Amino acid sequence: MLSLPTAIVTAPFCLDGQPVRGLGQRGNSTNSYWRIPGGGIVQGPNVQWPATQAGSLSAWFVVADTVCGIKDSVQVTYQIFGADIDSLQVPNVFTPNGDGINDAFQLRGTEASALAQINLVVYSRWGQEVFRTNDPQFAWDGRYQGRALSPGVYLYHLTWQSECGTAGDQHGAVTLNQ
To answer: In the structure, what pLDDT confidence band is assigned to residue 77 with cuts at 50, 70 and 90?
Structure first.
């Protein structure tokens, strides 16, 4: 009977020339290999391969018993961020009405999860600061000092630095609808 394989992947956070490392436990199997992104195969349980693309990637650790002809595998998914974030996709409208859809002004997606630091300030149309945060995982519900703000256009200034070292400075507007 073939033991189930287990595997972990340690990948660089950024596409910066560091390799991806695969650590597999092959149990009582007689052979093992990794099937890596791009279709390559690397023999052995503990291997490394070059990180050549950013994104959500998968590798397969495959074990085989060559005597009995049995094979099993485990898929490992990992994320590598590109080092070239030029700007962030910032929402331009949100509706804090409690329906569970766009109830908060927040950054989402892969780029947002790659942020190490941010400084976000939101202003009313009269230039009054109504929201400020340094938390990359912020979610502003359109309130100021506990009270819901009026629907309208609010201006923001966002500065950020990614985990990969790139930085940005963005200005824009977000519409608060009810």
So the answer is: confident
For 6-80, the fitting CATH number among 2.60.40.10, 2.30.40.10, 3.40.50.170, 3.55.40.20 is: 2.60.40.10
Class of domain 93-176: mainly beta
H or E stretch covering 112: helix 109-113
Beta bridge partners of 132: 121
Tell whether pTM > 0.90. Answer: no
**DSSP code, position 140:** B
Judging by DSSP bridges, how do beta strands 167-176 and 93-94 pair with one another?
parallel
How many CA atoms lie less than 13 Å away from 154 in the CB half-sphere?
31
The one-letter amino acid code at 17 reads G
Q: CB-based burial of residue 173 (10 Å sphere; 0-12 exposed, 13-18 middle, 19+ buried)? A: middle
| Span 25-44, pLDDT tens digits | 877 777 888 898 888 898 98
Q: What does the radius of gyration of the chain's CA atoms come to, in whole angstroms?
A: 23
Round to whole Å and give the CA distance between 176 and 116: 27
pLDDT score recorded for residue 51: 82
Contact 168, 136 (CB under 8 A): no
Calculate the CA 82 to chain-centre distance. Answer: 11
